[in-house]
Every structure is written in structure tokens, then in C-alpha cells.
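Q: Given only this backbone (355 positions), what sequence would you predict?
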């Protein structure tokens, strides 16, 4: 519009023209700002979605590379990222990427869903064997609350020599069945409640495999007519290729030990810091080869490590497993100061036990 045309406009028309131009400039500015924000974000979400989908699929082939095994532990995090990506791409009306992110979400949810399904087993809760486990973070954990839990048996890991002398004072209701303190992070101890019906027959130190330098406490016990072998199992952290390979060897050895004990007529209960998640290939292999059941089934994820971050970001790496004939009647986790692990409490019972 030239100067002559502008002079012909009325005052009202000029005001409307100015307002119209102002609105157009504002709209252009908003589009530019929106473009500057959304475009880079969209690129990042696309890349993240493709990476998460790739690792989620690769997790099924984690035996081929230790890094795939490590990242496969993060399936809950991948599910959360995928859910957010689905919402983002639906808002962006991107059908292709909505489908990709939905596929990633479904893959991880399918893996995690069974942990929320409660097994249908008839169990009398008053027959329960109550177990508490805690990685005490090289003795730094505040254990003052554990005695009041009144569990039948307490498993402690990362027990150092200076901790052993404190155990009778920290656990006045318990007897130390066996302690094997070590200056590093491989020591352990087993304590029995003085009023527990669990009868200790004996205890021993074993290595799984035989050449491992990590000593493990095995306790033989009787519980209402059942002979039990209880193993405090603390596995290596798979933070590099060598340690990852050795952890698989440890799990294979634990499976062999479990089968041998069951063949000898014992029930088997294995408790400890496994440094591996329950949906990993090596963990499910332990269950199958060792003829064991996971106490976590039906109780959600109950993430235990690291306890210093929000629960939904943690991983469940502390476990309690048992042979056939037993079932989980209660399972919970509790935070204590000083430890990077949550306290794991599990109650197990058998349908053929009588009060």
C-alpha cells in the first residue's frame, strides 16, 4: 500500500491496519520462537527414540556384548522415555515416530509386566520364614532399625572387621550364626533371631565358582520339618567386559550348586546383592538352570539401588530366590541411612507346612 492509498484511509481504517500488521509480526515471531524450540527438541526426541528402541531389542541378545547386557538393566527407564516420546509424537502428529516409540514402549512393558502379576498359590502366612537382607555399604549403614524387624534370619553383606564386634550390640535379639568379615566389600554375616523356629544345623564358607576369591556363607537349617540350605550370594559388579564375563560364571556356578543341593533333598533359598536385574538374560537363566523362583514376581519392581535417588529411577538388584514348594507371602523394601541399598524383607512359606 503506497502513501496516496494510506492518505485515503480513515482514522479507524488506519488503526485496524496497524493492529493487523502488529498481529502478523507477532505471529511471525511466535512461529520463529516455536521453530527454534521445537525443531531441535524434535530431533533429540527422534534420536533418543531410535536409540532406546535399538537397545531395547539388543537387550534380548545381551550375551553377545557386555554393554548390551549393562544397558538392558535400564528397561524401566526405557519404558518411561518411550511413553514420553509417544505423547510428544502424537502432539506433533508424527504417525511414523509415534509407531516407533509405541513399539519401544510395548517391548519394555512386555518384559516388565510379569513382575506385577501375583502368582495364584495357596499359602498360610503364619507358616512364613521371615528374611531380611542388607548390603551395609562397608559398614556405613545405620543398622539400628533391623533388630526391631524381628525377622527369623538376617543376611548382611559388605561386612568389614570393625563391624563384627558391633553386631551383638546392634542386634541384641539375635545370635551371630557366622560372620566372615573382609576389609574390602566381600565380607558377610548371618544372624538368627533367638526366638525363631528356624533351627541352625551348621554353616560353611564356599566359593562360586571354586576359584572365586569371594567367600559366601551357606547355612544349613531346619524349618518345621524341612531341610534348607540358605546361601548369601553377593555377585561381582559387571562394569567392564572381564567382570561381566565373571558374573555370568558366578551365576552358572550358583545354578549348579542349587541343583546339587536340591538333588540331595534340600530346599534352597538364595538371598543377596546380585548386581543384576531380574529381567536380564543371565538372571532368567539362573532361575531356569537352578530350578529357582523369584520372590519379586507379583510385587512390582521394588527397586533397591541406589537408594539415594528417587525410587522410580532405581534398579532392583537385591534378590531372594527359592526352590519349588515355597512361595512369597510378603515382600517389601525399606530405606536406611548410610547404605546405597534398600533393606529387602521377604516372607516365604510352603503350602505343606503346618502351624
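A: Predicted residues:
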Amino acid at each position: 500500500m503506497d502513501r496516496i492509498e494510506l492518505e485515503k484511509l480513515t482514522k479507524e481504517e488506519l488503526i485496524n491496519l496497524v493492529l493487523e500488521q502488529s498481529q502478523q509480526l507477532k505471529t511471525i515471531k511466535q512461529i520463529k520462537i516455536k521453530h527454534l524450540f521445537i525443531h531441535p527438541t524434535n530431533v533429540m526426541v527422534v534420536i533418543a527414540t531410535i536409540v532406546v528402541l535399538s537397545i531395547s531389542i539388543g537387550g534380548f541378545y545381551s550375551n553377545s556384548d557386555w554393554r548390551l547386557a549393562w544397558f538392558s538393566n535400564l528397561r524401566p527407564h526405557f519404558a518411561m522415555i518411550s511413553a514420553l516420546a509417544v505423547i510428544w509424537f502424537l502432539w506433533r502428529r508424527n504417525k511414523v515416530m509415534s509407531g516407533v516409540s509405541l513399539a519401544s514402549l510395548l517391548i519394555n512393558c512386555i518384559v516388565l509386566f510379569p513382575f506385577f502379576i501375583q502368582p495364584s498359590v495357596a499359602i498360610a502366612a503364619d507358616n512364613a520364614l521371615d528374611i531380611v537382607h542388607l548390603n551395609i555399604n562397608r559398614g556405613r549403614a545405620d543398622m539400628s532399625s533391623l533388630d526391631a524387624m524381628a525377622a527369623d534370619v538376617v543376611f548382611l553383606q559388605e561386612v568389614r572387621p570393625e563391624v563384627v564386634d558391633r553386631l551383638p550390640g546392634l542386634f541384641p535379639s539375635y545370635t551371630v550364626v557366622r560372620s566372615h568379615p573382609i576389609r574390602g566389600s566381600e565380607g558377610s554375616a548371618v544372624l538368627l533371631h533367638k526366638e525363631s523356629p528356624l533351627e541352625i544345623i551348621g554353616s560353611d564358607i564356599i566359593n562360586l565358582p571354586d576359584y572365586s576369591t569371594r567367600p559366601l556363607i551357606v547355612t544349613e537349617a531346619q524349618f518345621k520339618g524341612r531341610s534348607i540350605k540358605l546361601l548369601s550370594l553377593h555377585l561381582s559388579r559387571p562394569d567392564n567386559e572381564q567382570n561381566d564375563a565373571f558374573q555370568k560364571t558366578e551365576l552358572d556356578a550358583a545354578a549348579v550348586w542349587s541343583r546339587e543341593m536340591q538333588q540331595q533333598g534340600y530346599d534352597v533359598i538364595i538371598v543377596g546383592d546380585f548386581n543384576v536385574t531380574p529381567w536380564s538374560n543371565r538372571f532368567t537363566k539362573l532361575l531356569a538352570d537352578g530350578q529357582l523362583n523369584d520372590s519379586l514376581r507379583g510385587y512390582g519392581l521394588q527397586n533397591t539401588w541406589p537408594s539415594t535417588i528417587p525410587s522410580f529411577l532405581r534398579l532392583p538388584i537385591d534378590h531372594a530366590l527359592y526352590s519349588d514348594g515355597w512361595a512369597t507371602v510378603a515382600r517389601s523394601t525399606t530405606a536406611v541411612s548410610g547404605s546405597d541399598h534398600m533393606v529387602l524383607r521377604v516372607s516365604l512359606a510352603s503350602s505343606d507346612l503346618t502351624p
